């Protein structure tokens, strides 16, 4: 029996390198947001050099007829140590009337968390490195808590790669850090590393989190997806966490690619029915894919967890 919370779009992958207007190695790990009547993805585009930038793709239905606009891309500023080897894996949060983009700076000193803001995805204001190496998988909450912004992130120290939360008066100054979610035990699907996927989603039950978990096997790493729920007023309190993964590599486009056995979500949108969550994820570090789930069903799944 397979109980599936997420239903893959039949037309997956929704974007791949052959769609790109310029020669490209791979397109994957997109951030997502609704802007007006369109879904906008900030797609990680890995050039054939190996260096990534973040390009804009828009579509009215979020699945088909994508307009890919390289003129709106955020490119690495290779004069900065933080971005020398590229910029990767964005998340977009609407906060205080603008879009706040967190992304991984691939620096020669390790991966770190950079932040930029935009109002139109045409011009971007950089705010620099918000968290030094080694850190990734960061996204702000879309509202403040007692006047403070909050950021989930994933520092790495030795073999430990857990999710943390920090707070601050503005997006550039984050402190008061605390561990939030730990990797799962030993051989669990999320036993090696975890990291936030899309930004937290506010629901009546609390903040819904979607995170990736890694299990390292003799054949390499497997990246899968789980869910968690945080208290709505105190996001340092974890109310529930899925014991099992809810989306994992299954289809050929997830099993085979530049890095096989990877599903890696960085964005989601809510459709007009108020219940359908559309998850955007990178598959096998090669493709952009989409899968839909019912918010009610995701929350019911979390309510069943111990
Ligand atoms: C992670 C990140 C992602 C990538 C994944 C699988 O560490 O670098 O960009 O999708 O590995 O290769």
From TrEMBL:
Gene3D superfamilies: Glycosyl hydrolase domain, family 43. InterPro entries: Glyco_hydro_beta-prop_sf, Mannoside_phosphorylase. GO terms for molecular function: glycosyltransferase activity. The keyword Transferase applies. Keywords: Glycosyltransferase, Transferase. CDD domains: GH130. Pfam families: Glyco_hydro_130 (PF04041). This is Unannotated protein. It comes from freshwater metagenome.
């Amino acid at each position: 029996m397979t109980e599936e919370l997420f239903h893959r779009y039949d037309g997956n992958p929704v974007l791949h390198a052959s769609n790109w207007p310029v020669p490209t190695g791979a397109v994957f790990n997109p951030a997502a947001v609704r802007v007006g009547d369109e879904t906008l993805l900030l797609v990680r585009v890995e050039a054939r050099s190996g260096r990534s930038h973040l390009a804009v793709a828009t579509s009215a239905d979020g699945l088909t007829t994508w307009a890919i606009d390289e003129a709106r891309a955020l490119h690495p500023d290779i004069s900065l140590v933080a971005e020398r080897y590229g910029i990767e894996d964005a998340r977009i949060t609407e906060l205080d009337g603008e879009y706040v983009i967190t992304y991984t700076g691939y620096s020669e000193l390790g991966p770190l968390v950079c932040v930029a803001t935009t109002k139109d995805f045409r011009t971007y204001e950089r705010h620099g490195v918000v968290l030094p190496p080694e850190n990734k998988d960061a996204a702000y909450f879309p509202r403040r808590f007692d006047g403070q912004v909050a950021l989930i992130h994933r520092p790495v120290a030795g073999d430990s790669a857990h999710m943390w939360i920090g707070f601050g008066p503005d997006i550039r100054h984050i402190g008061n850090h605390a561990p939030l979610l730990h990797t799962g035990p030993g051989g669990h699907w999320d036993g090696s590393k975890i990291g936030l996927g899309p930004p937290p989603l506010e629901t009546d039950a609390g903040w819904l989190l979607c995170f990736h978990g890694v299990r390292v096997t003799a054949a390499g790493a497997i990246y899968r997806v789980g869910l968690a729920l945080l208290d709505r007023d105190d996001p340092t309190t974890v109310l529930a966490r899925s014991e099992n993964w809810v989306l994992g590599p299954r289809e050929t486009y997830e099993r085979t690619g530049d890095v096989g056995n990877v599903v890696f979500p960085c964005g989601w949108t809510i459709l007009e029915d108020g219940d359908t969550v559309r998850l955007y994820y990178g598959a096998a570090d090669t493709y952009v894919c989409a899968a839909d789930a019912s918010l009610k069903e995701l929350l019911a799944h979390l309510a069943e967890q111990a």
